[in-house]
Amino acid sequence: MEPNGQKNEQKILLVEDDGAISLGLEYSLSQEGYRPVLCGAVSEALNVLEQQTFDLALLDLTLPDGSGYEICREIKRRGDTPVIFLTARDDEVNVVMGLDMGADDYIVKPFRVRELLSRIRTVLRRAGRPAGGTLEYGDVQISPAQGRVTRNGQDVFLTALEYRLLMTLVNHEGRVLSRSQLLESIWDVSGDFVNDNTLTVYIKRLREKIEDNPQDPRIIKTVRGMGYRIDGRPR
């Protein structure tokens, strides 16, 4: 439920073949004011997508007649509806493929409903966030329109590639970006060579400039085996 007590009316496609999980999530999503539409298979979900539009999709990765990848691919072909994968722990490494095809986040089963709801709010907030304005991550402020970054009111001087890396993460807040995605986004068209090793260096330098403790980062998180994610609540 939204803070003002009104339902948000956002519609969520939920594709999950485990009946108990599906019904439990349907109840929890409805309690929060969302309108879930349940599907138990790829074919059913693809048919529903022909008839309805959604604000977000929750997709089980392994389904009886195929994969959540197929549904994600179709969703992204139609537009930019956010996608969150629901994945078993032994499927986690395979989620990289989903992220590369445009999925916005993933959550590993078993998960707490509160954590899933938090992920949903983050992804929906990012998807609906207007351009411009000042974004805040702890004591770091980012003004995209001015290309300016400050920390505790003091300017933070970033190189062009550091700023591009930071904004790539900010523009995908809450979503894990693989190293290959980040490399592609910061590749310097002027000819500077950027490879996997230099990406590690840029992440380290960026953390040194914006984190209170670069050894225990609170803003730019490392997701082991997956990539990086920026966390925070922009205002």
Question: Would you write up a description of this structure?
Answer:
- It is a single chain.
- The protein is an alpha/beta fold and 235 residues long.
- It is 38% helix and 21% strand.
- The strands form 4 sheets. A 5-stranded parallel β-sheet has the order 2-1-3-6-7, with helices on both faces. The protein has a 4-stranded antiparallel β-sheet with strand order 8-9-10-11, with no helix packed on it. The chain has a two-stranded antiparallel ribbon with strand order 4-5.
- Helix 2 (42-51) runs parallel beside helix 3 (68-78).
- The radius of gyration is 19 Å and the shape is elongated.
- The model is unreliable at 1-7 (pLDDT under 50).
Please write out the topology.
Blueprint: E1 11-15, H1 19-31, E2 35-39, H2 42-51, E3 56-60, E4 62-63, E5 66-67, H3 68-78, E6 83-87, H4 95-100, E7 105-108, H5 113-128, E8 135-137, E9 140-143, E10 148-151, E11 154-155, H6 160-170, H7 179-186, H8 196-210, E12 220-223, E13 227-230
Parallel strand pairs: 1-2, 1-3, 3-6, 6-7
Antiparallel strand pairs: 4-5, 8-9, 9-10, 10-11, 12-13
